[in-house]
Every structure is written in C-alpha cells, then in structure tokens.
Design goal:
single chain, alpha/beta, Immunoglobulin-like, Rossmann fold, 3 domains, six-stranded mixed sheet, five-stranded antiparallel sheet, 12 helices, 21 strands, elongated, vWFA_dom_sf, membrane, transmembrane
Length: 448
C-alpha cells in the first residue's frame, strides 16, 4: 500500500497547464452568475478537465517503467579541464513525450541548475551531453537522475528516480597530458606555443654510419669508412638519452594561493605531470619529489612503462600544508636521492625578495651538483592593479604597491641568475607551456 502511495503521489507533479485550466473553470463559474446564458458550459469544461486529468494519469502510469535513463561518465575526471558527461534516455511509451532531466552532480560544483529539456517520440533514444570542470582533486559523488515525463495532454508530470550513485576520482590533468603527448609524438609541440629551439652542435651519443647526402655536416665525415666503401660516409649522432629529470613540488602555504578556481599547487601538479610525460617520450627518466615542512613523496627517476601512472597516483593525493618549506630537508633529500647530475625543476612561489633570501643558500648548494630551474608564479591580480589608471590618492597608493611587488618578482629572476640558477616566472595558465619550453631548450643546448 505504501509503495502504491509513493508511486502515485510522491512522484506526481501538477503542471502549470492544469492550474491554468482550473483558473479558467473558476472564471467561467463566476461569469455564469452574471451571464445566465452560459448555462452548463462551466460544469462541462470542469468535468472535461477532470476527465483529461484522469486520462493523463492513466497514460503515464499504465507502464511500470516507461522511461530509461543512464549516466555516461568516464572512470575518472581531469582536474582543471572540461570533462564530458552524458545522459542516455529512451522512451518506452507508445506516444510522444516531453522529458525534463535533473542530474544530481557532486556538491563540490555548487550547481543546482543542471536541467535538460527535450522531446522524445515513441521508442526514440537520445544522448544529452554536458561538461563539468572540477577544480580540486579528490572523490566526487554523483547522485540520482530525476526524469520528469509529460504526455501530450500535459496536465501532470511523472517523476522517475534512477538511482545511479557513483563516486569518481578527480586526478591531475591527464587530458592536458595526453594533448601534449600527441604533440610530442608527432613533433608538433609548437602548435601549442612550444618554441622550436635551434640545436647548437651535436650530442656525443653515436648512432650509426650512413651514406652522405646533401645537407649533412661535412665535419662528421668518417674517412676510414669512406675509404673502405669508396663513397662518402658520415657518422650519425642522436640526442643523448636517459637523462634524469626530477620535478620537485613545494607544498607549503605559499602554494595555497588560488587562481581561476585552482590553487598554485594544482597548476604545479598539472605541469609536473605533463613535463614527466614529455620527458619519458623523449626517452629521459622522470622522477618526483614533494616537500613541505617534512619530507613528502619520492619517486626515483625511471623510464618504465608504469612510471607515469606511479607519478599520477602520488600527485592525486598531494595537498598543501600550512607551514614554510624546510629547505635544509629538501637539500639533504636531493643529495640522498639523486645519484648523478640531473635536471631539477623546483615548483615554488616567492612573493618578495626576503622570501627568496631565506631559501637562496640552499638553492645555491643544489645548483652546485644539479641543473636547477626554479619555477614561480606571476601574481596576475597585482599585475592588473598595476596596469589600471589611478583615479584618486588611494588608487595611486594601490597602484604603487602593486608595481613594487611586480618589480620584486623581476628582481628575484635577476638574483637567481647572479648565482647561475635558471628560473621561470610564469602566469599560472601558461605554466605548462613555459616549463616544457625550458626543458626542450636545455635538452637542445645539451645542458643535461
């Protein structure tokens, strides 16, 4: 009895068309007092409306399951990217229907307007797509799918509750990683802003001896092989491979700052994942170190097929902490982990020269043994303030302070360069491109 009550009452919704009809019936009854010639027209109209109401209920409830719906979602979502979600819906009724669909998306998105309206003829099915952009890593729980069905009469809606509760993990931006992977494989990275670096000289890793063709460097002629073959032969060299590339990610409070929904830590994680992927494609070894006031994850540099998945699983769980980075611990960790000269890309953030001075002694020590690239962020909001015209005294003060902080960022770059430490000052949205640019440049110049 209770299930019947739930079926016919809790899932039945009256439409505006029914209320409009009832309002018209009330108006006709009122007019019949002043215009007796209306006679039984108000009653006839009302009972016709009641009859249509009963027929509408019978049409929608005569089938126990007149509609089918299912959510199509990937196994995991990509952080900071537009992820496509689909809702498949099929009509089992023998007549055309109008359908309204509510998908209960995770509470992290703070959206309650994921509503779709469509029409379906008998036995028709559709796939409705929409996109979600998560801005935090972790688990996202989807709820039920609510489908509201309306017959051609349109006096009521019947609701179907499709319980499809599922939890999807949000990983670092693997969609961005795949995009750059495809570009690297096809040597078209410059289409995404990656510079084409002019190669200076040849590496010393010998590959083969081949016949001379026009355009080959005559300095690579192999005279002994040419004498034996009676034809010009040249030595062919290839890029040095299996260099160690380590991404070191600062998890301290300086990386908590948000930009466009993502924290600086998330931007660093996404860039690290893409850089590791490109390095592996270039046949280098990729590794990872995370650090805050205590030692975080350490993945030694390898070139195994499972290395990228291992890095992704570690990055998935990383969170910012609320203390400053222990730079002495970072130095001892790098000295203990890195057994040969490596490229160390350190993702951190400096807002002032004093913040750099506290860490500079340890950065200089790391740079003695490895090729160190310090990556930190432009404060785009301060940059906007410094570019706005000042309209009053307060505006002049704000503009001056913003310009001071922006100038300090440039001074930090020069200060690092004084000690032979390379740096990248980048806006968060251009971080990945700028980091890959520097990696390819260093590789082309045979710095690693």
């Amino acid at each position: 009895m209770k299930s019947i009550f739930n079926l016919y009452y809790k899932n039945l919704f009256l439409t505006s068309r029914l209320f409009t009809g009832l309002g018209c019936a009330v108006v006709l009854y009122l007019l019949s007092f002043f215009f007796p010639w209306l006679g039984d027209i108000p009653s006839l109209f009302f009972f016709t409306l009641v009859l249509l109401f009963v027929i509408d209920i019978w049409m929608l409830y005569r089938l126990p399951k007149g509609i089918f719906a299912r959510r199509h979602a990937p196994e995991r979502l990509s952080n900071g990217d537009d992820n496509e979600i689909g809702i498949y819906v099929e009509n089992f009724y023998p007549f055309n229907i109008s359908v309204g669909i509510i998908d209960e998306i995770p509470h992290q998105f703070q959206k309650r307007d994921v509503w779709f309206k469509t029409g379906l003829i008998s036995r028709q099915h559709k796939l409705l797509n929409y996109q979600l952009r998560p801005t935090r890593r972790g688990e996202y729980e989807f709820g039920a799918i609510r489908v509201y069905v309306q017959s051609p009469i349109g006096l009521i809606n019947r609701r179907y509750n499709i319980e499809q509760v599922e939890t999807l993990p949000v990983y670092p931006s693997f969609l961005q990683m795949r995009k750059y992977e495809l570009m690297a494989i096809s040597n078209r990275l410059n289409e995404y802003g990656i510079k084409k670096i002019r190669r200076l000289g040849n590496s010393m890793e010998f590959e083969q001896i081949k016949n001379y063709v026009a355009g080959d460097d005559y300095r690579t002629l192999n005279w002994k092989a040419s004498a034996r073959r009676g034809d010009l032969m040249v030595n062919n060299y290839t890029d040095e491979k299996s260099q160690h590339v380590y991404c070191v990610i600062d998890k301290s409070r300086s990386m908590k700052m948000p930009f466009d929904g993502l924290s600086l830590l998330d931007y660093a994680i996404n860039a690290s994942l893409v850089l590791s992927s490109v390095a592996l494609l270039k046949e280098d070894k990729a590794g990872l170190i995370t650090i805050s006031e205590k030692k975080g994850a350490i993945i030694p540099a390898e070139r195994r097929p499972t290395q990228l998945n291992k890095i992704m699983e570690v990055l998935y769980k990383e969170k910012t902490r609320y203390l400053e980075t222990n730079m002495e611990l970072l130095y001892t960790t790098i000295r203990g982990t890195l057994k040969q000269r490596s490229l160390v890309v350190f993702f951190t953030n400096f807002e002032s020269m004093s913040a750099l001075q506290r860490q500079l002694p340890f950065l200089k020590r790391i740079a003695k043994f490895h090729l160190l690239v310090v990556v930190f962020f432009e404060n785009t909001e301060l940059k906007k303030l410094s570019e706005q015209p000042a309209e009053n005294v307060e505006g002049i003060y704000i503009k001056t302070v913003a310009e001071k902080f922006a100038y300090e960022k440039k001074l930090i770059v020069k200060e690092l360069a004084r000690y032979g430490i390379q740096s990248i000052l980048s806006t968060p949205q251009n971080l990945t491109v700028n980091t890959i640019n520097r990696y390819l440049e260093l590789k082309a110049r045979q710095k690693i």
